[in-house]
């Protein structure tokens, strides 16, 4: 795989989103088969992926614990990114909560569960309308100065919010929803390109509708690949700051997704996907 810079960290350009190893719709509690979930996480690293994204809200807390159980002590060069700022009072709830005290509690919990002394990439999961963004980002900056956070990222932000945050502390990554079928964050992607900020598209395969498009199926057949591989290869071709993080609880889908990094779309193939 080719590599990309996230701050001063160099990682392979195809990462892994660990949320889906908890294989239920609410991302709540334990995976249906814990042993299988651990196998998936170990296989991620075996395949050469060295960037894993998670969040304290996945489970909540379960996902981080699974990563540590599967991979600690961590292999050299593995970057684990996690997120803070969401509350999970019950399975159906994902509540914004970016109060300083909540963010500090999130960080201490993540450090303990992941068995780390410092988080390589700590991301604000959302913008809490009840808390000024400057207060939330300022708290992350304080934790960075304390040596508990190496780099800071944002998630689900606009260009204006990104710029407000960058006035407080360097931002090395943005994680927004983006895919072949959903380009609502195109302006944020372009802004990240201009400023050398890594862009992590979440939901990179969308709801599956893009994979059923005739043009995607046609190109997949031509290149002897799957529609999902086309969608990932398109993201990698789309921008040099793109760091896709497709996630799955399936070993077969994991192998398929990682193999997409080897696909080289020509200009004509890329244009055919639109």
Structure description:
Helix 1 (34-46) crosses helix 2 and helix 7 crosses helix 8. By secondary structure, the protein is of the alpha/beta class. The model has no long low-confidence stretch (mean pLDDT 97). The two termini are 24 Å apart. Strand 4 (51-53), helix 2 (62-71) and strand 5 form a beta-alpha-beta unit. 39% of the residues lie in helices and 17% in strands. The protein has a 7-stranded parallel β-sheet, with helices on one face. The chain has a single domain, classed as TIM Barrel (Alpha-Beta Barrel), CATH 3.20.20.
Question: How is the topology of this model organized?
Answer:
Blueprint: E1 3-6, E2 9-12, E3 16-17, H1 34-46, E4 51-53, H2 62-71, E5 79-84, E6 86-87, E7 95-96, H3 100-114, E8 119-124, H4 133-145, E9 149-155, H5 159-166, E10 173-177, H6 186-195, E11 198-202, H7 214-223, H8 227-238, H9 251-259, H10 267-273
Parallel strand pairs: 3-4, 4-5, 5-8, 8-9, 9-10, 10-11
Antiparallel strand pairs: 1-2, 6-7
Helix pairs in contact: 1-2, 7-8
Kindly list the characteristics that best describe this protein.
single chain, 274 residues, alpha/beta, TIM Barrel, 7-stranded parallel β-sheet, two-stranded antiparallel ribbon, 10 helices, 11 strands, 39% helix
Short description:
The protein starts with a strand and ends with a helix. The protein is α/β, with parallel strands linked by helices. It contains ten helices and eleven strands.
Structural class: alpha/beta
CATH-defined superfamily: NADP-dependent oxidoreductase domain
Low-confidence stretches: none
What is the 3D form? Answer: globular
The tally of helices reads 10
Distance between the termini: 24 Å
Largest pleated sheet: 7 strands, parallel
Give the number of DSSP strands: 11
**How many structural domains in the coordinates?**
1
CATH topology: TIM Barrel
Q: Work out the helicity level.
A: 25-40%
Mean pLDDT: 97
Strand order of the largest sheet: 3-4-5-8-9-10-11
CATH architecture: Alpha-Beta Barrel
Q: What is the N-to-C succession of helices and strands?
A: EEEHEHEEEHEHEHEHEHHHH
